[in-house]
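Fill-in record for Peptidase S41-like protein.
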Amino acid sequence: MKKMIALSLLLLVSLDGYSQADSIKNYVTEALGVMKQYSVNKHRLDWDKLYRTAYDSVKKCKTLRETYPSLVQALHSLEDSHSNFAVPEMVAQYSQRYDFPKAKDSLIAGKYAYITIPPIGNFNKEDWKEYVGLVYEKAARLDKADPEAWIIDLRDNDGGMFHPMYAAIQPFLDKKKVVGDIDPQGKTRYFSYSGGKVFYDGKLDHVFENRLVKLKTASRPIFILTSKKTSSSGEFTAVSFVGQKNVRLVGKNTQGLTSANTEYKLSDGAMLILTVGNLVDRNKKEYKVIGEGITPDILVKGNELQEYVNEIETYLKAKK
């Protein structure tokens, strides 16, 4: 009887061990499957090797959390310089409200309407609504001053969530399909905006309750300020204006994280933030070289706002 009990206990421990190992392998397989299906570099990778490396690295793992470093390493193996991993606690924080950078505005020299489009890095829809509303409010107030030109500052926009940025710049854009991405199969997927609704590849992605403001002076010259810090969604925002007749980019080459990320939630609440395509502009130009960035129309040597304004004024005088 004692031997049978001991054998039964041993069997239960053994089965539990197999179950645990299966659970861990299934979890890693789940994550690798997402990467293999959607990664922008999916056609350039040795997936058999990547799977073997990942499985070998989690053999001694006892919990799903212990697999996280292996998943991060797998993401690094994708070589896109943009994919990331978020633990469940971080994912939960993304949905919370936080004190995001607020848009700033001023009337420079009494004639240039200046407004910033700052970064915003969470999924909270109330924050998104507030972000967009602040930009609309400031833009409407500046429009009443009858400015000669607009200056939209993206120098400190190092990325985050593109949807609120895209909604915020709608009063200044001249057409709907101005920015998107191209997937590994070569399909171009554009964002568009209509009646507060953001569409991606023709499918509804988000609805903003903010009422779009109409600016009387939106057709006047618009200057988009960029810096080496301008990155990711900040670069998507900048490219939204590339090719628009009354717009010029001013500053320095952007950082060059010109790729699109999509979030995929795993079974334990962790999240893969996966690069799934490269940025394209309204003319279907693809920005696929990591680190190359977006080259402005007007280069600025310094970093101070006044140096940017000086270059803008030189340009405007030459156009008269």
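KEY FINDING: The longest helix spans residues 2-38.
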